[in-house]
Amino acid sequence: MWPLPLLTAVVADRLTGYQLDTPEPLERGTWPHTLVQASPAAAVAVAVLLRPALALAPAAAAAGLGPRAALRRSWSLTWTRSGFARVLALALPLTALTAGTVRLVTEPSLPLRPLVRAHLEQATGNFLAAYYAGILVPILVGVLVAAVVTLPLTFTAFAVPHDRLRSPRTPPMCA
């Protein structure tokens, strides 16, 4: 579900990115300056609103719906009186758990930096690529371990509100 904020950032970059490469700074008060200044905040706002609204899609897909139908179902269940509040109340602790897991795993994997940098520089002869790979390896390890640990818990946790937020007309899942 996180490709949506990335897509928003790419679209914002496509709309405003060419301005950033100009040799002269953008003039304050102009439309391009305002657009460049507002694009990160707009991307974060869209992500904060849409991410919880699409959080129930994996549970809807597990119930047998196709990808588009699962997204529509998640959207319709979340944008009810109590749906968004329930999903947000569940998403905040799970976000904290994921961020904490990334942090806890990234710190002990920091000694991988010089090891990866040395091996990659020796193999490729490219110091810059080896340097940045060394920087990114602990982060990659943290993200992968956090995904392995928290994604099953997150999908299971979001399956419960998916079942409880169903409309009364919807039959229960077949076993």
Task: Offer a few descriptive terms.
7 helices, 0% strand, 175 residues
Q: Biggest β-sheet, characterized?
A: none
Helix content: over 70%
SSE order = HHHHHHH
Distance between the termini: 27 Å
Low-pLDDT windows of residues: none
Radius of gyration: 21 Å
What is the 3D shape?
Answer: extended
Q: Number of DSSP strands?
A: 0
DSSP summary: helix tally: 7
Question: Averaged pLDDT, please?
Answer: 76
Question: Quick summary of this structure?
Answer:
This protein has helices at residues 3-20, 31-53, 57-62, 67-78, 83-106, 112-124, 127-164. With 175 residues, it is mainly alpha-helical.
3D structure, described in words:
The chain is an all-alpha fold. It is 77% helix and 0% strand. It contains 7 helices and no strands. The chain has helices at residues 3-20, 31-53, 57-62, 67-78, 83-106, 112-124, 127-164. α6 crosses α7. It starts with a helix and ends in an 11-residue tail after the last helix. The model has no long low-confidence stretch (mean pLDDT 76).
Summarize the topology.
Blueprint (H helix, E strand, L loop, with lengths): L2 H18 L10 H23 L3 H6 L4 H12 L4 H24 L5 H13 L2 H38 L11
